[in-house]
């Protein structure tokens, strides 16, 4: 019979507190960026900053709360390949969206 016992990593509380503080600070920065109009000077900077903050927050949650940082290489490869697959699908979707013409310019008219 196979031995399914595995060693689990115990995450120190300081990691949870650190990620919590990081998430709170980045949430405050997101609210500030949403209220500031950066696009009038630098183009689509609001969406770029907001998405960058969202990626940082998601990465912290996945690495610490989902224990991917301490998981096996196989789990890490599967997480990275899932992200890669998501990027491929979003690229195909956006390519299709931007190559279509004839979209209405106003709604309800």
Could you describe the 3D structure shown?
The protein is an all-alpha fold and 109 residues long. The chain has 2 domains: 11-66; 72-98. It is 69% helix and 0% strand. The protein has 4 helices and no strands. The chain has helices at 13-35, 39-42, 45-65, 73-99. Helix 1 packs antiparallel against helix 3. The chain starts with 12 loop residues before the first helix and ends in a 10-residue tail after the last helix. The mean pLDDT is 87.
Q: Count of DSSP helices?
A: 4
Report how far the terminal alpha carbons are from each other: 70 Å
Poorly predicted ranges: none
| Helicity, as a percent range | 55-70%
Strand content: under 5%
The total beta strand count reads: 0
How many structural domains can be distinguished in the coordinates? Answer: 2
The helix/strand series, from N terminus to C terminus, equals HHHH
Overall structural class, as computed from helix and strand content, comes to mainly alpha
Could you tell me the mean pLDDT?
Answer: 87
What composes the largest sheet?
A: none
Shape, principal axes of CA atoms: flat
Radius of gyration: 20 Å
Topology:
Layout: H1 13-35, H2 39-42, H3 45-65, H4 73-99
Helix pairs in contact: 1-3
Defining key terms:
single chain; mainly alpha; flat; 2 domains; 69% helix; 109 residues
Task: Give a nutshell description of this structure.
The chain is mostly helical.
